[in-house]
Amino acid sequence: QIDNKGGYMQNTVLIPQMVTIKEAAEKTGLANFYIRQLCLKNKIIHVRAGRKYLINFEKLIEFLNGNSELY
């Protein structure tokens, strides 16, 4: 794409910070079990990578602050 000054526009892609259950527990002070339960009940945004759960940390914080909307 070309902007109005004749230069090319750069598309910015924001990559979410994904953390493991253990990392999320350490950063928030919550128990591993509680975070795992949030994943199993689909209360927070996460993906599975093999046996590990990777949690979108920003969305976890939003959830903990009372914004429980998923996706």
User: Globular, elongated, flat, extended or rod-shaped: what is the shape?
Assistant: elongated
Oligomer state of the chains in this structure: single chain
What is the average per-residue confidence, as pLDDT, rounded to a whole number? Answer: 87
**Spatial strand arrangement across the major sheet:** 1-3-2
The count of DSSP E runs of length 2 or more, i.e. the number of strands, is: 3
Q: How big is the Rg?
A: 17 Å
Order of helices and strands: EHHEEH
Helix content: 25-40%
Spans where pLDDT lies below 50 across 5 or more residues? none
H/I helix tally? 3
- How much strand content do the residues show? 15-25%
Describe the largest sheet.
3 strands, antiparallel
What's the end-to-end separation, in Å? Answer: 29 Å
Computed structural class? alpha+beta
Give an overview of the whole structure.
With 71 residues, the chain is an alpha+beta fold. Helices cover 35% and strands 17% of the residues. The protein contains three helices and three strands; from the N terminus they run βααββα. The chain has a three-stranded antiparallel β-sheet with strand order 1-3-2. A hairpin with a 2-residue loop joins strand 2 and strand 3.
